[in-house]
Design a protein that fits this description.
The protein has 279 residues and is mainly α. The protein has one domain (10-34, 63-275): MetI-like (MetI-like fold), CATH 1.10.3720. The chain is built from 11 helices and no strands. It has helices at 2-7, 10-28, 30-33, 71-107, 109-124, 127-138, 142-168, 172-179, 184-220, 232-239, 248-275. Helix 9 runs antiparallel to helix 11 and helix 10 (232-239) runs antiparallel to helix 11 (248-275). The two termini are 17 Å apart.
């Protein structure tokens, strides 16, 4: 019975997975569930309010922006950008940081000093300053945006992997593997890595929401995705000049960001509770 209770989702996990399920479904099937082309302009219907407001139309359920583009369609396609940037960034930064942290913790000495001092240097540079430099030099594109997040976030995985490896490498099964002459890479990836993956999975899940927030912030500042690509942060930036009389331009993209980040955080908390042996 104890094992069955441990595997239950609970309200926190169920809510998180439900939110993320909807977001992923909408992102994957965006061309089929979107009522309009997200970049289709109709100046005659510019700043049309949501359907339940006066002068609203059912064809534009959440209203339109200043160029007559459908808000709901842009939110739906914006979910694709946010999820793609978040997932790709977390995968690359997670692999890079985990490998470097694993090598630093297992090999020690020179490798440890190089990796961990590099981590300290990256952490000492403010994220926004680094983003400004990279995006200004390389230009605005999804590839450069992902590169910024990889450079900034790999250090979190490296620190966690390093600390966990220092603990696990002294365990009996690791010492036995080394005693029989097992190759270092085999010991690291077959014996140590499976035993440190739980906290890394939790960090990755929480970082998905963090990357979405950072991507939205950079797009809001005009340093993220190119203008022709719908993004939640770009929608916030477009609507900030119309807050007094067109509240829907920023409200709905903001709600999408909040719900998605909350979904990842709830799932991350649920995973932490289930994977942490101390709980």
């Amino acid at each position: 019975m104890k094992h069955k209770r441990k595997l239950r989702l609970g309200a926190k996990g169920a809510t998180g997975f439900a939110i993320l399920g909807v977001v992923v479904f909408v992102a994957v099937f965006a061309p089929y569930v979107s009522p309009h082309d997200p970049n289709q302009q109709d100046l005659r219907n510019g700043l049309r309010p949501p359907a339940w407001e006066v002068q609203g139309e059912m064809s534009h359920l959440l209203g339109t922006d200043r160029l007559g583009r459908d808000i709901l369609s842009r939110i739906i396609f914006g979910s694709r950008v946010s999820l793609m940037v978040a997932v790709v960034s977390v995968v690359f930064s997670g692999v890079l940081g985990t490998v470097l942290g694993l090598f630093a913790g297992y090999l020690g000495r020179v490798v440890e000093n190089v990796v961990m001092r590099t981590v300290d240097i990256v952490l000492a540079v403010p994220f926004m300053l680094l983003a400004l430099v990279v995006m200004s030099v390389l230009g605005k594109s999804l590839t450069n945006l992902i590169l910024v997040f990889v450079v900034v976030t790999w250090v979190q995985y490296a620190r966690v992997a390093f600390a966990q490896t220092l603990e696990v490498r002294e365990k009996e099964f690791v010492l036995a593997s080394r005693a029989i002459g097992a190759f270092g890479l085999r010991t690291m990836f077959l014996h140590i890595l499976p035993n440190i993956q739980s906290p890394l999975i939790v960090v990755a899940t929480l970082n998905l929401g963090l990357v979405i927030l950072m991507e939205s912030g950079l797009s809001f500042l005009g340093l993220g995705t190119p203008p022709e690509i719908p993004s939640w942060g770009g929608m916030l930036q477009d609507g900030r000049s119309y807050l007094n009389f067109a509240w829907w331009l920023t409200t709905f993209p903001g709600v999408a960001i909040v719900l998605t980040v909350m979904g990842f955080n709830l799932v991350g908390d649920w995973l932490r509770d289930r994977l942490d042996p101390k709980i």
